[in-house]
Amino acid sequence: MLRKLLAVLMIIAVSTMLGAAVAAQDDMETYVLGVALPFTGSFGTFGQDFERGIDLAVAQMNAELEAAGSAIRFETASADTEQTPEGAARALQTIVQTTGAQVVVGPLTTSEVLGAKQFADENGVVIVAMASSGAAASIPGDNIFRVIYPPDTFSSKAFASIALERGHQNMVVLYVDDPFGNGMNEHFIKNYQARGGGEVASFAYAPQSTELSTEAAAVSAALAGFGEDAGFFCVCFPGAAEAFVQVAQIDPVLTSVKWLGNEAMTSAEMLEDPGHAQTLANADFVTVSQSADSTPLTPIFHADFVAMFDKEPGIFTNYAFDAANIAMLTMLAAGNDGAAVKSMLPFISNHYIGTAVQAFLDENGDQAIASYGIRQVAEDGSAFHVIGAYDGNTDTITYE
Amino acid sequence: MPPALLTTSLVNTIQIGSLYALMALGITLTFSVMKLPNFAHAEYVTAGAYAALIVSLSGVLNPLVIMIAAFAVGALSALISHLAVFKPLEGRDVSFYTLILSSFAIGLIIRYILFTMADYFNLFDLRIAIPLRIVLRDGNLILSNLFAWVVPTSVILVIILTLLLNRSPLGREMRALANNISLARVIGIRVERVKNYAWLLVGGLAGVAGALWGLQTAVHPLMGWGAIISVFAAAILGGLSSFSGTVLGAYVVAFSENTVMLFLNANYGLDLAFKPAIPFIIIIAVLLLRPQGFTNLIKRAEELQR
Predict the structure, then answer these.
(1) What is the ipTM of this complex?
(2) Residue in A146, A31, A28 with CA at minimum distance from that of residue A77
(3) Cβ–Cβ below 8 Å for A272 and B273
(4) Beta bridge partner(s), residue A104
(5) Which of these, A30, A360, A392, B248, has the minimum number of CB atoms within 10 Å of its CB?
(6) Class for the domain spanning A152-284+372-399
């Protein structure tokens, strides 16, 4: 009899505990953070690295929420943008329709961001992009926030001023034929000529091109036509940048003029090749890119990333980490609702200091703090050194 | 068009045309012997380029060793594709379209194996570590050591391939397979053995082309795929059955992408970003106007020679 009673009591106790656990589970609320990045294609490495940065941010946030006794947890839902506008639209649609996510971190490039824009605007989904800078995506009132990297309207002014300071009477531009490249080319020409520059000959290359000898021949001929005081400005994606330098290094004109270029030209791989390093050194190569000043969080992020993934974070991975944190903090404040997040995100963003720079958004939802570093390749081609800074907000260059 | 630009574009035409020829010969061989337009061919090119890159990064800079490594890896990739996928599918008598789709699938598998490897070892956008230098400079004419390797290597391999197919017992067996595989089997040709050799040859040529393409540009898991449409255009222009036609097609495609493109840009302002459209235009034009490509032209030229 006693055994039967004990068994009944045991069943009641276990049932009560299970019930309590289930009730506790029911109280938990999970917010889905969408992640739309290029996991395949030539930017696949960036996408995978950025996803790791986002995973780290989510893991840290969940640990803090648990320690604080919060019932909210975040989980991610990822989809591949395939580095195309159509792929980005599909990725956003997949994430939203399969998980109901209201906020998506990514995509990477401006063409992908613009590809995803229509779906985001029509469905009230908020996009938090970390590295897109093309001027074409600077649109007021839409659902796109580019929280870390300022638009190229600023850096194009810096490139124009540097070209003129270097005495280039005319310029030749090679640019990738996508919204980023087109925007940079257009704004560079406008600023260069408004500041007293002469003619600009521009050549676009197709984004999927992996061999650029035709383009190098055209650029070389245009430079030869302009004469000795012409300069060259390269607006390329990684991969194409290396391919261009590869064919340019035996061109007598391209190796005798000075070069400017975007930061894709400054990859670690570029200087690993002695021929490429020497070509850039001979060209007195200079680039302008956002100053990623160290904040107290920078070394912590780095150490945490290495501890979690047993590898070094790639370039701009901390931007993805920061973008994910801004998105999650906004969701904690506004709830899992796209319209509320859209309304709240500028406030949260403007009060956020992350691992790289302070975020402060303009009327287009873009990073408004335009602080850039000017870097030049060393004479022996061994490294890039900071030689100055460009303040986009006051349009002034200061050299060290 | 300025003379310097014309000269440079013609040099590029010869250099890139030679590379396209090396890649396209494998496609023609696969199509004529195995009756398969193999889209995984691009990945044999990439596999060869990565083999060359890894050998060069290990400190071995001898071009011959690099080419042999690229040949071996390309050949092995092609043979494994055949043994693991194409052969079993042929045994089930699947349709031509199934084989094409399976070639896409094999290509994707190899590509993402290469992506995973490149990601793990950080092997993106690197260049085969042989320094580029000028070997001849005469006025506007500038030739690099890359030109000096690419063009003779392509020419020599094309000659070897032609001799192999026309003069050797293996070549005769391959041609017998191309004409009538059932009859070849009946007369005692060991069909599978010949096919294995053909796949090794196809992959090996693609591997060598990849190594040379990796000197021209940066090595990346998508590099072969980036060139494959131009290469298919060359093979289609050649009629998919004639090796000399394929080589001619490769130079025509390279000429269109370089000299014609620069001419149109200089004189009519046509954007260079339209360059990737050229092989598509060639493919469509050939299929609409002359589906046999250069085949009849080549045959007529051979008859005249006799």
Answers:
(1) 0.86
(2) A31
(3) no
(4) A34, A127
(5) A30
(6) alpha beta
Say whether residue A246 is in contact with chain B using an 8 A CB cutoff.
Answer: yes
The domain total for chain B is 1
How many angstroms separate the CA atoms of B39 and B42, rounded? Answer: 6
Reply yes or no on whether the pLDDT at A12 is more than 70.
no
Instruction: Say yes or no to pLDDT of A23 above 50.
Output: no
Nearest in space to A191 (alpha carbons), one of A229, A150, A234, A158:
A158
Q: Which of residues 163-192 of A touch B (CB under 8 A)?
A: 177
Does A204 contact B265 at a Cβ distance shorter than 8 Å? no
Name the residue type at position A385.
H
Inter-CA distances, B68 with B154, B161, B208, B211, Å: 14, 16, 8, 10
Residues of B in Cβ contact (< 8 Å) with A274: 131
Residues from chain B contacting residue A273 (CB–CB below 8 Å): 126-127, 129
Cβ distance of B276 and A45 shorter than 8 Å: no
Domain that holds residue B134: 3-221
> In this complex, is the C-beta atom of A221 within 8 Å of any C-beta atom belonging to chain B?
yes
Q: How many Å apart are CA B250 and CA B255, to the nearest integer?
A: 9
Q: Does A206 touch chain B (CB under 8 A)?
A: yes
Q: How does strand A396-399 pair with strand B134-138? A: unpaired
The answer as to whether B116 is a domain residue is: yes
Q: Which residue has the higher pLDDT, B34 or B67?
A: B67
Q: Is A134 in a helix, a strand, or coil?
A: coil
Query: Within an 8 Å CB–CB cutoff, is residue A59 touching chain B?
Result: no
* Cα–Cα distance, B54 to B62 (Å, whole number): 13
In a domain, B163, yes or no: yes
Q: Where are the beta strands (DSSP E) in chain B?
A: 134-138, 141-144
B274 three-class SS: helix
Q: Express each pLDDT in B138-181 by its tens digit.
A: 888 999 988 998 899 888 888 888 888 888 998 888 888 888 88
Q: Which CATH class for the A25-149+294-369 domain?
A: alpha beta
Distance between B75 CA and the closest CA of chain A, angstroms? 24
Taking the C-alpha atoms of residue B222 and residue B112, their distance in angstroms, rounded to an integer, is 10
Q: How far, in Å, CA of B153 to CA of B212, rounded?
A: 9
pTM of the complete model = 0.85
- CA of B271, closest CA in chain A: separation in Å? 7
pLDDT for the residue numbered B302? 66
